[in-house]
Automatic annotation (TrEMBL), chain A:
NDH-1 is composed of 14 different subunits. Subunits NuoB, C, D, E, F, and G constitute the peripheral sector of the complex. Belongs to the complex I 49 kDa subunit family. One of its GO terms (cellular component) is plasma membrane. NDH-1 shuttles electrons from NADH, via FMN and iron-sulfur (Fe-S) centers, to quinones in the respiratory chain. The immediate electron acceptor for the enzyme in this species is believed to be ubiquinone. Couples the redox reaction to proton translocation (for every two electrons transferred, four hydrogen ions are translocated across the cytoplasmic membrane), and thus conserves the redox energy in a proton gradient. GO terms for molecular function: NAD binding; NADH dehydrogenase (quinone) (non-electrogenic) activity; quinone binding. HAMAP family: NDH1_NuoD. This is NADH-quinone oxidoreductase subunit D. Residues 131-403 form the NADH-quinone oxidoreductase subunit D domain. It comes from Pedobacter alluvionis. The gene is nuoD.
Automatic annotation (TrEMBL), chain B:
HAMAP family: NDH1_NuoC. The gene is nuoC. Keywords: Cell membrane, Membrane, NAD, Quinone, Translocase, Transport. This is NADH-quinone oxidoreductase subunit C. It catalyses: a quinone + NADH + 5 H(+)(in) = a quinol + NAD(+) + 4 H(+)(out). It is an enzyme of class 7 (translocase). It comes from the Bacteria. It comes from Pedobacter alluvionis. PANTHER family: NADH DEHYDROGENASE [UBIQUINONE] IRON-SULFUR PROTEIN 3, MITOCHONDRIAL, NADH DEHYDROGENASE UBIQUINONE IRON-SULFUR PROTEIN 3. NDH-1 shuttles electrons from NADH, via FMN and iron-sulfur (Fe-S) centers, to quinones in the respiratory chain. The immediate electron acceptor for the enzyme in this species is believed to be a menaquinone. Couples the redox reaction to proton translocation (for every two electrons transferred, four hydrogen ions are translocated across the cytoplasmic membrane), and thus conserves the redox energy in a proton gradient.
Amino acid sequence: MNHNHPVFTDNDPQSELVTLNLGPTHPATHGVFQNVLQLDGERIVSGVSTIGYIHRAFEKIAEHRPFYQITPLTDRLNYCSSPINNMGWHMTVEKLLNIQMPKRVDYLRVIIMELSRIADHIICNTIIGQDTGATTTFLYLFQFREHIYEIFEEVCGARLTTNIGRIGGFERDFNDIAFAKIDKFLKEFPKALKEFENLLTRNRIFIDRTAGVAEVTKETALEYSWTGPLLRATGVDYDVRVSDPYSSYQDFDFDVPVGTSGDIYDRYLVRNEEMWQSVRIIEQALVKLKTEPKGIFHADVPEFYLPPKQEVYNNMEALIYHFKIVMGEIDAPKAEVYHAVEGGNGELGFYLINDGGRTPYRLHFRRPSFINYQMFAPMSEGMLLSDAIINMSSMNIIAGELDA
Amino acid sequence: MEETTLNNDIHVKLTEKFGEKVTAVSEPYGFLTFVTYNDVIINVLSHLKEELKFNFLTDITAVHYPGKDHGIAVVYHLHNMVEKVRIRIKVFISEQNPTIPTATTVWKGANWMERETYDLFGVKFEGHPDLRRILNMDDLGVHPMLKQYPLEDPNRVDKKDEFFGR
Protein backbone atom coordinates (compact mmCIF):
# COMPACT_ATOMS: atom_id res chain seq x y z
CA MET A 1 0.00 0.00 0.00
CA ASN A 2 1.30 3.40 -0.84
CA HIS A 3 0.76 5.70 2.11
CA ASN A 4 1.27 8.87 0.20
CA HIS A 5 -1.38 8.59 -2.46
CA PRO A 6 -4.78 8.50 -0.80
CA VAL A 7 -7.92 7.76 -2.73
CA PHE A 8 -10.73 10.16 -2.04
CA THR A 9 -14.26 9.14 -2.90
CA ASP A 10 -16.96 11.66 -3.74
CA ASN A 11 -19.83 9.48 -2.66
CA ASP A 12 -18.59 9.24 0.90
CA PRO A 13 -21.47 10.28 3.18
CA GLN A 14 -18.97 11.67 5.66
CA SER A 15 -17.11 13.89 3.28
CA GLU A 16 -16.88 16.78 5.70
CA LEU A 17 -13.33 17.48 6.86
CA VAL A 18 -12.35 17.60 10.52
CA THR A 19 -10.10 20.36 11.75
CA LEU A 20 -7.52 19.20 14.25
CA ASN A 21 -5.28 21.45 16.28
CA LEU A 22 -2.05 19.55 16.75
CA GLY A 23 -0.37 21.71 19.32
CA PRO A 24 0.77 24.22 20.56
CA THR A 25 1.05 21.94 23.57
CA HIS A 26 0.58 18.38 22.52
CA PRO A 27 2.51 15.40 23.85
CA ALA A 28 3.26 14.17 20.32
CA THR A 29 4.89 17.35 19.06
CA HIS A 30 7.68 17.29 21.68
CA GLY A 31 7.84 21.05 21.61
CA VAL A 32 5.78 24.19 21.45
CA PHE A 33 4.48 24.60 17.91
CA GLN A 34 1.15 24.20 16.26
CA ASN A 35 -0.21 22.54 13.16
CA VAL A 36 -3.79 23.09 12.10
CA LEU A 37 -4.66 20.01 10.10
CA GLN A 38 -7.67 19.23 7.92
CA LEU A 39 -8.44 15.56 8.31
CA ASP A 40 -10.45 13.24 6.11
CA GLY A 41 -10.85 10.28 8.43
CA GLU A 42 -7.27 9.62 9.46
CA ARG A 43 -5.71 11.20 6.42
CA ILE A 44 -4.32 14.69 6.37
CA VAL A 45 -5.73 16.73 3.52
CA SER A 46 -3.88 19.93 4.27
CA GLY A 47 -1.98 21.51 7.09
CA VAL A 48 -0.79 24.91 8.19
CA SER A 49 2.19 25.23 10.51
CA THR A 50 2.23 28.03 13.03
CA ILE A 51 5.46 28.66 14.86
CA GLY A 52 6.90 31.37 17.06
CA TYR A 53 5.40 30.35 20.40
CA ILE A 54 8.77 30.62 22.11
CA HIS A 55 10.29 33.33 19.94
CA ARG A 56 12.67 35.20 22.25
CA ALA A 57 14.16 37.69 19.77
CA PHE A 58 17.71 36.41 20.21
CA GLU A 59 18.93 38.26 17.15
CA LYS A 60 17.71 41.53 18.62
CA ILE A 61 19.11 40.76 22.07
CA ALA A 62 22.45 39.81 20.50
CA GLU A 63 22.74 43.32 19.07
CA HIS A 64 22.88 44.63 22.62
CA ARG A 65 25.38 42.27 24.15
CA PRO A 66 29.16 41.92 23.97
CA PHE A 67 30.39 38.79 22.22
CA TYR A 68 30.99 36.71 25.31
CA GLN A 69 27.46 37.33 26.60
CA ILE A 70 25.94 35.86 23.45
CA THR A 71 27.10 32.34 24.29
CA PRO A 72 24.23 31.77 26.76
CA LEU A 73 21.78 32.78 24.03
CA THR A 74 23.15 30.11 21.72
CA ASP A 75 22.59 27.53 24.48
CA ARG A 76 18.92 28.03 24.07
CA LEU A 77 18.74 27.44 20.34
CA ASN A 78 19.03 23.68 20.07
CA TYR A 79 18.98 22.91 23.77
CA CYS A 80 19.50 19.21 23.13
CA SER A 81 23.04 19.85 21.92
CA SER A 82 23.98 23.21 23.41
CA PRO A 83 27.77 22.69 23.30
CA ILE A 84 27.73 22.53 19.50
CA ASN A 85 25.95 25.88 19.39
CA ASN A 86 28.32 27.39 21.98
CA MET A 87 31.37 26.26 20.11
CA GLY A 88 29.96 27.28 16.77
CA TRP A 89 29.61 30.77 18.18
CA HIS A 90 33.09 30.78 19.73
CA MET A 91 34.56 29.65 16.44
CA THR A 92 32.68 32.37 14.56
CA VAL A 93 34.20 35.04 16.78
CA GLU A 94 37.61 33.38 16.58
CA LYS A 95 37.34 33.43 12.81
CA LEU A 96 36.53 37.14 12.97
CA LEU A 97 39.47 37.78 15.29
CA ASN A 98 41.83 35.47 13.32
CA ILE A 99 42.67 33.36 16.34
CA GLN A 100 44.26 29.99 15.70
CA MET A 101 43.45 27.36 18.31
CA PRO A 102 46.08 24.97 19.64
CA LYS A 103 45.44 21.40 18.46
CA ARG A 104 44.69 20.21 21.98
CA VAL A 105 41.82 22.68 22.31
CA ASP A 106 40.47 21.59 18.94
CA TYR A 107 40.49 17.96 20.02
CA LEU A 108 38.85 18.73 23.36
CA ARG A 109 36.17 20.63 21.47
CA VAL A 110 35.69 17.74 19.09
CA ILE A 111 35.14 15.39 22.04
CA ILE A 112 32.51 17.68 23.53
CA MET A 113 30.79 18.33 20.20
CA GLU A 114 30.61 14.64 19.32
CA LEU A 115 29.26 13.80 22.76
CA SER A 116 26.52 16.33 22.28
CA ARG A 117 25.82 15.00 18.80
CA ILE A 118 25.31 11.59 20.39
CA ALA A 119 23.01 13.14 23.00
CA ASP A 120 21.02 14.85 20.27
CA HIS A 121 20.67 11.70 18.18
CA ILE A 122 19.76 9.64 21.25
CA ILE A 123 16.82 11.96 21.83
CA CYS A 124 15.65 11.82 18.25
CA ASN A 125 15.99 8.10 17.68
CA THR A 126 14.59 6.98 20.99
CA ILE A 127 11.64 9.28 20.45
CA ILE A 128 10.97 7.74 17.05
CA GLY A 129 10.87 4.46 18.96
CA GLN A 130 8.60 5.97 21.60
CA ASP A 131 6.19 7.36 18.99
CA THR A 132 5.96 4.02 17.20
CA GLY A 133 5.02 2.47 20.52
CA ALA A 134 8.36 1.15 21.73
CA THR A 135 8.84 2.81 25.10
CA THR A 136 11.41 0.18 26.08
CA THR A 137 14.02 1.49 23.67
CA PHE A 138 13.50 4.98 24.96
CA LEU A 139 14.18 3.92 28.51
CA TYR A 140 17.18 1.75 27.59
CA LEU A 141 19.18 4.37 25.74
CA PHE A 142 18.06 7.53 27.44
CA GLN A 143 20.22 6.98 30.53
CA PHE A 144 23.29 7.51 28.34
CA ARG A 145 22.17 11.03 27.67
CA GLU A 146 22.32 11.44 31.43
CA HIS A 147 25.91 10.13 31.42
CA ILE A 148 26.83 12.64 28.72
CA TYR A 149 25.34 15.43 30.82
CA GLU A 150 27.45 14.24 33.74
CA ILE A 151 30.53 14.69 31.58
CA PHE A 152 29.41 18.22 30.65
CA GLU A 153 28.81 18.92 34.31
CA GLU A 154 32.36 17.84 35.11
CA VAL A 155 33.79 20.07 32.35
CA CYS A 156 31.74 23.25 32.79
CA GLY A 157 29.41 22.81 35.75
CA ALA A 158 26.17 22.89 33.82
CA ARG A 159 24.14 20.16 32.20
CA LEU A 160 21.56 21.34 29.70
CA THR A 161 22.27 24.97 28.88
CA THR A 162 25.98 24.49 29.17
CA ASN A 163 27.60 27.82 28.23
CA ILE A 164 30.67 25.65 27.73
CA GLY A 165 34.03 27.08 26.75
CA ARG A 166 34.96 30.63 25.94
CA ILE A 167 36.07 32.67 23.02
CA GLY A 168 39.66 31.45 22.77
CA GLY A 169 39.34 28.02 24.35
CA PHE A 170 37.88 26.49 27.48
CA GLU A 171 37.42 28.15 30.84
CA ARG A 172 39.39 25.37 32.54
CA ASP A 173 41.13 22.16 31.68
CA PHE A 174 39.28 18.84 31.75
CA ASN A 175 39.94 17.13 35.07
CA ASP A 176 40.76 13.47 35.56
CA ILE A 177 37.20 12.68 36.59
CA ALA A 178 35.95 14.06 33.26
CA PHE A 179 38.36 11.85 31.33
CA ALA A 180 37.41 8.88 33.49
CA LYS A 181 33.75 9.52 32.76
CA ILE A 182 34.41 9.80 29.03
CA ASP A 183 36.30 6.49 29.14
CA LYS A 184 33.48 4.87 31.06
CA PHE A 185 30.96 6.22 28.57
CA LEU A 186 32.97 4.90 25.62
CA LYS A 187 33.11 1.49 27.26
CA GLU A 188 29.42 1.21 28.07
CA PHE A 189 27.67 3.12 25.31
CA PRO A 190 28.49 0.84 22.34
CA LYS A 191 26.90 -2.10 24.14
CA ALA A 192 23.74 -0.15 24.83
CA LEU A 193 23.59 1.21 21.30
CA LYS A 194 23.99 -2.32 19.95
CA GLU A 195 21.16 -3.46 22.19
CA PHE A 196 19.04 -0.53 21.02
CA GLU A 197 19.70 -1.44 17.39
CA ASN A 198 18.89 -5.08 18.08
CA LEU A 199 15.54 -4.02 19.44
CA LEU A 200 14.58 -1.74 16.56
CA THR A 201 16.56 -2.06 13.36
CA ARG A 202 15.22 -5.43 12.23
CA ASN A 203 11.98 -5.14 14.15
CA ARG A 204 9.07 -5.99 11.85
CA ILE A 205 6.63 -3.60 13.50
CA PHE A 206 9.15 -0.76 13.48
CA ILE A 207 10.02 -1.31 9.82
CA ASP A 208 6.34 -1.42 8.87
CA ARG A 209 5.73 1.86 10.61
CA THR A 210 8.75 3.70 9.23
CA ALA A 211 10.01 2.25 5.94
CA GLY A 212 8.55 3.96 2.90
CA VAL A 213 6.85 6.61 5.02
CA ALA A 214 7.55 10.26 4.24
CA GLU A 215 9.98 9.54 1.44
CA VAL A 216 11.87 12.54 0.15
CA THR A 217 13.98 12.73 -2.97
CA LYS A 218 17.38 14.40 -3.08
CA GLU A 219 16.08 17.07 -5.39
CA THR A 220 13.21 18.05 -3.10
CA ALA A 221 15.47 18.02 -0.07
CA LEU A 222 17.98 20.36 -1.72
CA GLU A 223 15.19 22.53 -3.08
CA TYR A 224 13.95 23.01 0.49
CA SER A 225 17.47 23.64 1.83
CA TRP A 226 17.48 20.60 4.08
CA THR A 227 20.73 19.81 5.85
CA GLY A 228 21.98 17.34 8.39
CA PRO A 229 20.80 13.75 8.88
CA LEU A 230 17.58 14.53 7.00
CA LEU A 231 19.48 15.50 3.85
CA ARG A 232 21.94 12.64 4.21
CA ALA A 233 19.06 10.17 4.51
CA THR A 234 18.00 11.20 1.01
CA GLY A 235 21.45 10.29 -0.34
CA VAL A 236 23.35 13.59 -0.41
CA ASP A 237 26.68 13.24 1.40
CA TYR A 238 26.83 16.80 2.66
CA ASP A 239 28.37 17.20 6.08
CA VAL A 240 29.90 20.50 7.17
CA ARG A 241 32.53 18.61 9.15
CA VAL A 242 33.87 17.19 5.88
CA SER A 243 33.05 19.82 3.30
CA ASP A 244 34.23 22.78 5.37
CA PRO A 245 36.30 21.32 8.23
CA TYR A 246 36.48 23.33 11.43
CA SER A 247 38.12 22.54 14.74
CA SER A 248 40.59 20.12 13.07
CA TYR A 249 37.96 17.65 11.87
CA GLN A 250 40.24 17.01 8.91
CA ASP A 251 42.56 15.10 11.28
CA PHE A 252 39.93 12.48 11.97
CA ASP A 253 38.97 9.39 10.08
CA PHE A 254 35.22 8.90 9.95
CA ASP A 255 32.48 8.04 7.49
CA VAL A 256 29.47 10.08 6.49
CA PRO A 257 26.53 7.69 6.37
CA VAL A 258 23.93 8.30 3.70
CA GLY A 259 20.52 6.76 3.05
CA THR A 260 18.76 6.12 -0.21
CA SER A 261 15.08 6.97 0.01
CA GLY A 262 14.95 9.68 2.68
CA ASP A 263 12.15 7.92 4.55
CA ILE A 264 11.89 7.75 8.32
CA TYR A 265 13.68 4.40 8.49
CA ASP A 266 16.65 5.84 6.59
CA ARG A 267 16.80 8.84 8.88
CA TYR A 268 16.82 6.50 11.85
CA LEU A 269 19.63 4.44 10.32
CA VAL A 270 21.67 7.52 9.40
CA ARG A 271 21.42 8.89 12.94
CA ASN A 272 22.37 5.53 14.46
CA GLU A 273 25.39 5.23 12.22
CA GLU A 274 26.40 8.78 13.06
CA MET A 275 26.43 7.83 16.72
CA TRP A 276 28.85 5.01 15.91
CA GLN A 277 30.99 7.43 13.93
CA SER A 278 30.94 9.91 16.80
CA VAL A 279 32.19 7.22 19.13
CA ARG A 280 34.96 6.55 16.63
CA ILE A 281 35.88 10.23 16.49
CA ILE A 282 35.99 10.54 20.27
CA GLU A 283 38.24 7.48 20.54
CA GLN A 284 40.61 8.97 17.98
CA ALA A 285 40.56 12.31 19.74
CA LEU A 286 41.52 10.70 23.05
CA VAL A 287 44.47 8.99 21.37
CA LYS A 288 45.56 12.24 19.71
CA LEU A 289 45.33 14.08 23.02
CA LYS A 290 48.02 11.83 24.48
CA THR A 291 50.60 13.24 22.04
CA GLU A 292 49.66 16.87 22.69
CA PRO A 293 51.36 18.89 25.44
CA LYS A 294 49.33 18.68 28.62
CA GLY A 295 47.59 21.57 30.32
CA ILE A 296 46.83 23.69 27.25
CA PHE A 297 43.15 24.54 27.22
CA HIS A 298 43.07 27.94 25.55
CA ALA A 299 44.89 29.93 22.91
CA ASP A 300 47.52 32.41 24.01
CA VAL A 301 45.48 35.53 23.25
CA PRO A 302 45.35 37.62 26.46
CA GLU A 303 43.48 40.44 24.70
CA PHE A 304 40.52 38.19 23.90
CA TYR A 305 40.57 35.44 26.51
CA LEU A 306 39.42 36.29 30.03
CA PRO A 307 42.35 36.09 32.48
CA PRO A 308 42.09 34.01 35.68
CA LYS A 309 40.42 35.94 38.48
CA GLN A 310 43.38 35.92 40.88
CA GLU A 311 45.50 37.60 38.20
CA VAL A 312 42.88 40.28 37.68
CA TYR A 313 43.40 41.34 41.29
CA ASN A 314 47.18 41.20 41.23
CA ASN A 315 48.29 42.06 37.72
CA MET A 316 47.68 45.37 36.01
CA GLU A 317 47.65 43.98 32.45
CA ALA A 318 45.23 41.23 33.36
CA LEU A 319 42.96 43.80 34.99
CA ILE A 320 42.95 45.91 31.81
CA TYR A 321 42.21 42.95 29.57
CA HIS A 322 39.52 41.75 31.92
CA PHE A 323 37.88 45.17 31.90
CA LYS A 324 38.07 45.50 28.12
CA ILE A 325 36.66 42.05 27.46
CA VAL A 326 33.81 42.42 29.94
CA MET A 327 32.90 45.85 28.59
CA GLY A 328 33.06 44.58 25.00
CA GLU A 329 35.96 46.87 24.09
CA ILE A 330 38.03 44.21 22.32
CA ASP A 331 39.78 45.15 19.10
CA ALA A 332 37.72 43.21 16.60
CA PRO A 333 38.07 43.85 12.87
CA LYS A 334 35.17 45.66 11.21
CA ALA A 335 34.09 42.82 9.00
CA GLU A 336 31.44 40.26 8.32
CA VAL A 337 31.90 36.57 8.74
CA TYR A 338 29.84 33.45 8.19
CA HIS A 339 30.74 30.30 10.02
CA ALA A 340 28.87 27.03 9.89
CA VAL A 341 29.11 23.96 12.07
CA GLU A 342 27.37 20.63 11.75
CA GLY A 343 24.77 20.77 14.48
CA GLY A 344 22.60 17.88 15.57
CA ASN A 345 20.00 18.78 12.94
CA GLY A 346 22.16 20.18 10.17
CA GLU A 347 24.12 23.21 9.18
CA LEU A 348 24.06 25.69 12.02
CA GLY A 349 25.35 28.97 10.66
CA PHE A 350 26.32 32.24 12.32
CA TYR A 351 26.34 35.35 10.18
CA LEU A 352 28.05 38.08 12.15
CA ILE A 353 28.56 41.69 11.10
CA ASN A 354 30.87 43.68 13.31
CA ASP A 355 31.05 47.45 12.96
CA GLY A 356 33.59 48.07 15.70
CA GLY A 357 30.98 48.66 18.39
CA ARG A 358 30.78 46.79 21.64
CA THR A 359 28.18 44.45 20.31
CA PRO A 360 27.56 42.79 16.95
CA TYR A 361 25.92 45.13 14.46
CA ARG A 362 23.91 42.19 13.24
CA LEU A 363 23.94 38.54 14.14
CA HIS A 364 21.86 36.03 12.27
CA PHE A 365 21.49 32.38 13.16
CA ARG A 366 20.92 29.95 10.32
CA ARG A 367 18.86 27.48 12.28
CA PRO A 368 18.52 24.03 10.70
CA SER A 369 15.27 23.14 12.51
CA PHE A 370 13.58 26.28 11.21
CA ILE A 371 14.56 25.61 7.62
CA ASN A 372 13.96 21.86 7.74
CA TYR A 373 10.53 22.23 9.31
CA GLN A 374 8.97 24.30 6.55
CA MET A 375 8.52 21.15 4.50
CA PHE A 376 6.52 19.40 7.21
CA ALA A 377 3.09 20.75 6.26
CA PRO A 378 3.42 20.22 2.48
CA MET A 379 4.83 16.72 2.93
CA SER A 380 2.10 15.73 5.38
CA GLU A 381 -0.59 16.11 2.76
CA GLY A 382 -2.08 12.72 2.05
CA MET A 383 -0.28 11.12 4.97
CA LEU A 384 -1.91 9.29 7.85
CA LEU A 385 -2.01 11.34 11.02
CA SER A 386 -0.05 8.68 12.90
CA ASP A 387 2.63 8.69 10.16
CA ALA A 388 2.87 12.47 10.31
CA ILE A 389 3.56 12.22 14.04
CA ILE A 390 6.56 9.92 13.52
CA ASN A 391 7.62 12.05 10.59
CA MET A 392 7.71 15.02 12.93
CA SER A 393 9.72 13.18 15.57
CA SER A 394 12.16 11.95 12.93
CA MET A 395 12.75 15.54 11.83
CA ASN A 396 13.91 16.26 15.39
CA ILE A 397 12.34 19.69 15.52
CA ILE A 398 13.60 21.52 18.59
CA ALA A 399 11.31 24.42 19.43
CA GLY A 400 14.15 26.58 20.71
CA GLU A 401 15.98 26.33 17.43
CA LEU A 402 12.78 26.69 15.44
CA ASP A 403 11.87 30.04 16.96
CA ALA A 404 15.18 31.53 18.15
CA MET B 1 44.92 29.83 -2.47
CA GLU B 2 42.76 27.44 -4.42
CA GLU B 3 39.65 29.13 -3.15
CA THR B 4 40.84 32.50 -4.41
CA THR B 5 41.21 31.26 -7.97
CA LEU B 6 37.77 29.69 -7.82
CA ASN B 7 36.34 32.94 -6.53
CA ASN B 8 38.09 34.87 -9.31
CA ASP B 9 36.63 32.47 -11.80
CA ILE B 10 33.11 33.03 -10.52
CA HIS B 11 33.67 36.77 -10.46
CA VAL B 12 34.82 36.79 -14.09
CA LYS B 13 31.87 34.69 -15.21
CA LEU B 14 29.39 36.91 -13.38
CA THR B 15 30.88 40.09 -14.80
CA GLU B 16 30.70 38.62 -18.29
CA LYS B 17 27.03 37.93 -17.84
CA PHE B 18 25.82 40.88 -15.78
CA GLY B 19 28.43 43.57 -16.43
CA GLU B 20 28.06 46.52 -14.14
CA LYS B 21 25.18 45.02 -12.25
CA VAL B 22 27.69 43.10 -10.16
CA THR B 23 29.58 45.58 -7.97
CA ALA B 24 31.48 45.94 -4.74
CA VAL B 25 33.13 42.55 -4.98
CA SER B 26 35.11 41.60 -1.90
CA GLU B 27 36.37 38.50 -0.20
CA PRO B 28 36.12 38.82 3.57
CA TYR B 29 37.64 35.64 5.07
CA GLY B 30 37.67 33.98 1.65
CA PHE B 31 33.92 34.37 1.25
CA LEU B 32 33.10 35.91 -2.12
CA THR B 33 30.68 38.78 -1.55
CA PHE B 34 29.14 41.13 -4.07
CA VAL B 35 26.32 43.60 -4.41
CA THR B 36 23.70 43.46 -7.12
CA TYR B 37 20.42 45.22 -7.85
CA ASN B 38 16.74 44.70 -7.34
CA ASP B 39 15.91 44.33 -11.03
CA VAL B 40 18.39 41.53 -11.77
CA ILE B 41 18.56 39.64 -8.48
CA ILE B 42 16.37 36.77 -9.64
CA ASN B 43 18.36 36.46 -12.88
CA VAL B 44 21.57 36.44 -10.87
CA LEU B 45 20.24 33.79 -8.50
CA SER B 46 18.94 31.51 -11.23
CA HIS B 47 22.12 32.00 -13.28
CA LEU B 48 24.16 31.01 -10.24
CA LYS B 49 21.90 28.02 -9.65
CA GLU B 50 21.65 26.73 -13.21
CA GLU B 51 25.00 27.67 -14.76
CA LEU B 52 27.46 28.02 -11.92
CA LYS B 53 26.13 25.08 -9.86
CA PHE B 54 25.25 26.98 -6.73
CA ASN B 55 22.60 24.39 -6.04
CA PHE B 56 21.93 25.21 -2.41
CA LEU B 57 20.32 28.23 -0.80
CA THR B 58 21.85 28.43 2.65
CA ASP B 59 20.08 31.45 3.99
CA ILE B 60 18.23 34.68 3.35
CA THR B 61 18.31 37.49 5.84
CA ALA B 62 18.49 41.27 5.99
CA VAL B 63 20.49 44.01 7.65
CA HIS B 64 19.27 47.49 8.49
CA TYR B 65 21.54 50.50 7.98
CA PRO B 66 19.39 53.45 9.06
CA GLY B 67 19.94 56.85 7.46
CA LYS B 68 21.18 55.61 4.10
CA ASP B 69 19.42 55.95 0.75
CA HIS B 70 19.09 52.25 0.43
CA GLY B 71 18.98 51.33 4.06
CA ILE B 72 18.03 47.68 3.97
CA ALA B 73 20.39 45.04 2.67
CA VAL B 74 18.84 41.70 1.78
CA VAL B 75 21.58 39.10 2.08
CA TYR B 76 21.59 35.74 0.30
CA HIS B 77 24.04 32.99 1.13
CA LEU B 78 24.46 30.37 -1.56
CA HIS B 79 26.52 27.23 -1.55
CA ASN B 80 28.04 25.15 -4.32
CA MET B 81 28.25 21.79 -2.58
CA VAL B 82 30.27 20.09 -5.30
CA GLU B 83 33.11 22.59 -5.52
CA LYS B 84 32.67 23.61 -1.87
CA VAL B 85 32.33 27.32 -2.57
CA ARG B 86 30.07 29.69 -0.75
CA ILE B 87 28.92 33.04 -2.04
CA ARG B 88 27.16 36.00 -0.47
CA ILE B 89 24.93 38.34 -2.45
CA LYS B 90 23.59 41.62 -1.16
CA VAL B 91 20.85 43.79 -2.55
CA PHE B 92 20.36 47.24 -1.06
CA ILE B 93 16.76 48.43 -1.16
CA SER B 94 15.07 51.56 0.04
CA GLU B 95 13.74 51.75 3.56
CA GLN B 96 10.55 53.55 2.56
CA ASN B 97 9.57 51.04 -0.05
CA PRO B 98 11.36 47.79 0.75
CA THR B 99 10.32 45.52 -2.09
CA ILE B 100 12.31 42.84 -3.84
CA PRO B 101 11.23 39.94 -6.07
CA THR B 102 10.80 36.65 -4.28
CA ALA B 103 13.36 33.87 -4.57
CA THR B 104 10.70 31.19 -4.06
CA THR B 105 10.59 30.91 -7.84
CA VAL B 106 14.18 29.66 -7.74
CA TRP B 107 14.18 27.67 -4.48
CA LYS B 108 11.04 26.57 -2.68
CA GLY B 109 12.98 26.64 0.56
CA ALA B 110 13.19 30.41 0.34
CA ASN B 111 9.58 30.56 1.54
CA TRP B 112 10.08 30.66 5.29
CA MET B 113 13.39 32.50 5.12
CA GLU B 114 11.60 35.31 3.30
CA ARG B 115 8.69 35.20 5.71
CA GLU B 116 11.15 35.59 8.57
CA THR B 117 12.86 38.50 6.83
CA TYR B 118 9.49 40.11 6.19
CA ASP B 119 8.47 39.61 9.80
CA LEU B 120 11.64 41.06 11.27
CA PHE B 121 12.51 43.75 8.70
CA GLY B 122 9.36 44.44 6.72
CA VAL B 123 10.92 43.51 3.40
CA LYS B 124 8.10 42.80 0.96
CA PHE B 125 8.94 39.93 -1.35
CA GLU B 126 6.89 40.44 -4.49
CA GLY B 127 5.24 37.30 -5.76
CA HIS B 128 5.73 35.38 -2.52
CA PRO B 129 2.96 32.78 -2.21
CA ASP B 130 2.22 33.33 1.47
CA LEU B 131 3.84 36.47 2.87
CA ARG B 132 2.67 36.44 6.48
CA ARG B 133 4.49 37.00 9.73
CA ILE B 134 6.08 33.84 11.01
CA LEU B 135 7.69 34.38 14.40
CA ASN B 136 5.75 37.32 15.80
CA MET B 137 2.04 37.72 16.24
CA ASP B 138 0.06 39.05 13.29
CA ASP B 139 -1.03 42.30 14.94
CA LEU B 140 2.41 43.34 16.17
CA GLY B 141 2.36 46.34 13.83
CA VAL B 142 6.12 46.88 13.66
CA HIS B 143 9.09 45.04 12.22
CA PRO B 144 11.16 44.66 15.35
CA MET B 145 14.66 44.10 13.95
CA LEU B 146 14.74 47.59 12.45
CA LYS B 147 17.21 49.70 14.37
CA GLN B 148 14.70 52.35 15.43
CA TYR B 149 13.02 49.95 17.81
CA PRO B 150 14.91 49.81 21.09
CA LEU B 151 15.31 46.51 22.85
CA GLU B 152 14.56 47.44 26.43
CA ASP B 153 12.08 49.64 28.18
CA PRO B 154 13.04 53.17 27.01
CA ASN B 155 12.71 54.45 30.57
CA ARG B 156 15.63 52.40 31.74
CA VAL B 157 18.78 54.48 31.95
CA ASP B 158 21.31 51.68 32.21
CA LYS B 159 20.56 50.05 28.88
CA LYS B 160 20.93 52.97 26.47
CA ASP B 161 22.49 52.22 23.11
CA GLU B 162 25.28 54.71 23.75
CA PHE B 163 26.64 52.41 26.41
CA PHE B 164 27.01 49.77 23.74
CA GLY B 165 29.17 51.82 21.41
CA ARG B 166 26.63 53.35 19.09
